[in-house]
Amino acid sequence: MNQSTRELIVERADELFYQQGFEHTSFAHIAKEVNISRGNFYHHFKSKDQILDAVIDLRLANTQSMLDEWELEGETPDARIRCFIQILIRNMAKITLYGCPVGTLTTELAKLNHVALGRANEVFTLFRGWLTQQFEAQGCGDQSDELAMHLLARSQGIATLASAFQDESFIHDEVKTLNQWLEQQLSNS
Amino acid sequence: MNQSTRELIVERADELFYQQGFEHTSFAHIAKEVNISRGNFYHHFKSKDQILDAVIDLRLANTQSMLDEWELEGETPDARIRCFIQILIRNMAKITLYGCPVGTLTTELAKLNHVALGRANEVFTLFRGWLTQQFEAQGCGDQSDELAMHLLARSQGIATLASAFQDESFIHDEVKTLNQWLEQQLSNS
């Protein structure tokens, strides 16, 4: 029971940080949304920074599960990398409204000079390591990390522009270009 | 004299919004940094949103001046587009700390569901229109707007990842890749 209240708080905070930003979401706001007493809330978390740590843990766990799924889903490294690209389409509506949850959090924490920036960046590092493995398995050798970072940057840029122009069709166009880029890279290797 | 106090406020707010984020920077904080009396401050601005409008005006004017400079500086459209890519190198230290001022502001305002999002996005629109013109002048025809948006997205993604990993060398690598991409596009057209 206690565990599930804690989980409820973290899940709601995760959404609020994503949709409104970390700074804009107050400790009181989260308590109010979860609709529990202040005493019960304090029992679980003493500060917004503690909630942020738990949100980052949740995001790391969710990212790892997703990567594990793709590992089973995609029969080749190539197909697995396409699973990554495909999240731009799957999360298109949210990305157009709020950008990418990973990139917008690290951007905000960098500006706040927040101590949790390094931990928030571990989500990127998970994707980076996994993508690097896929490129290696596809025979890209020494270039694999560079290709992984390039792909992460491409997907971040697409999210930022789609959100700025509130334009879903831009995501469609760029995903097509990204898949063409992938094909080229893999045929070169 | 009045004019210059106003300018001072707007310039300092511009920096603070960029370095710390819009939400994190309070009205009182700006007044304190500019070091003028509250009365004098209120004489110029009644709210943070009014300051934001003035900051966007300043950024639009500065962007236009920069584009005008590049227009004179670059002898060919190709060279002018390279001036755009080169700002990633010129502003590398700041980008690594705070990301891109244009993209991080639109991202934040989108999350805040802020009425000024459309105006903030006019800075992107200025770049987009100017880059489209350069691609057209270089013979890219119907593809010109798509290429302009693609280039904007690439530069945004580079800024986000450089800031997340606090990695200047990533900017160098990606700028090289971006210049190669440009060469390819222009040789195709």
UniProtKB/TrEMBL annotation, chains A, B:
Keywords: DNA-binding, Transcription, Transcription regulation. Pfam families: TetR_N. Residues 26-45 bind DNA. The keyword DNA-binding applies. InterPro entries: Homeodomain-like_sf (IPR009057), HTH_TetR (IPR001647), Tet_transcr_reg_TetR-rel_C_sf (IPR036271). Residues 3-63 form the HTH tetR-type domain. This is TetR/AcrR family transcriptional regulator.
